[in-house]
Amino acid sequence: MRLLSASRQRPIWNSVRASVLNHTRFAFLPAEDARTLSGEYEGLFNWMALRHILGDTAPALFGGLDLGGASTQITFEPPDVGGILQDSYYVRDRNEARPDVRVYSHSYMRAGKDEAQRRLFEQLAVAVPALDYSSLYPASMAPEPRIANPCMNRGYEREVSVGCGGGAGACRTVRFTGLGNWDECRRLVDSLLHLDYECVLPPCALSGVYQPTPTGVRFFASDFFFYVANGIGLVSWNGRWEGSWAEFAAAGRAFCGRRWDEVASKYAADFCFGSAYVPALLGAYGIPADSTAVTYVRELEGFDVGWTLGAMLFELTSGPYAEAAACGPSSSPRGVWDAFARPVKHKPTAIQMPPPETAPEGLDPATGWASSTTFRLGLVAGFAIAGVMSAVAYLVCASVSSRHRTPLL
Predict the structure, then answer these.
(1) Is the pTM of this model over 0.70?
(2) To 10 degrees, what angle do helices 245-256 and 271-284 make?
């Protein structure tokens, strides 16, 4: 959605809002609850999810690395929080025993896996001459010209539409053929990160963007970071891997050097590119080549690692649900979730009562149920007690929630 202009987003969100309002009974605020999430908040929510999952086992300094299709985010608490000069956010935990945390978060648009690869295709379509095989075939059988792509395995071919940003009728279809050359792929990938841009406010990462140096930070890399590590054989699907990006690059070089028919699978077409792109990103972020400060992970403690969990926790503790959450069994985010996850107690279909001749006083001996007089008195008393308890609970919840809001500034 962030790739679309505001005018193109508007009808999509209007449709979403109308659908939710017309077809559900959710407590829904159209202007606030259906919107495009900014990239920095995506990174912050990923960091909040990690903090929730890790709990007391979280490293002193930790961060999240997320690599999606359109964008990529880096979020972490640097060793010198007072030195964050921009892209700085306070995260306030509703559990008052934990101090507020100041973190750095930045999102790079069009630096996600799909968009970066699309930019590479565009670059190759302009700069690299097509390979013409016409002289090797009879005229009627000659294949169309192809452009060599070092970031694809040898033997793999792919048709891509390029030039579509140049206006009406500018799109053309180009066929790429793989070379499987990791070192040349890495050279091209570095050019996508614009490491040559002027660093106006040092230190800088890619595209001349300011970023504190992540010394001593333990990073958890998810999404496409993990999928590539899994695809090139560094980590099992349910495992985790702590290795250097130099090791990552070595595994990628070996993977890219294999023919397509040896590695072909539903997702393998992007792994050669990814195996060069991931080390390039980490190097641009200031992580040394031999550092093992990055953990590649898909799940932790039974939770999927990702920003959506953090977004849910933020809404429950900062939004209109905060007052209800304050009545949960705990003031921690887990307690908030518990408050909303309790199963509804249904009325039993039958109750086994003593035989009529031994029924306790106040029960109808014929049915085993409360007599009408006893039932009415009990019902009145029950409603009176429930009313008093509800009023007290409301006052307590309002008081507690006012102290436990979790704004994210």
Answers:
(1) yes
(2) 160
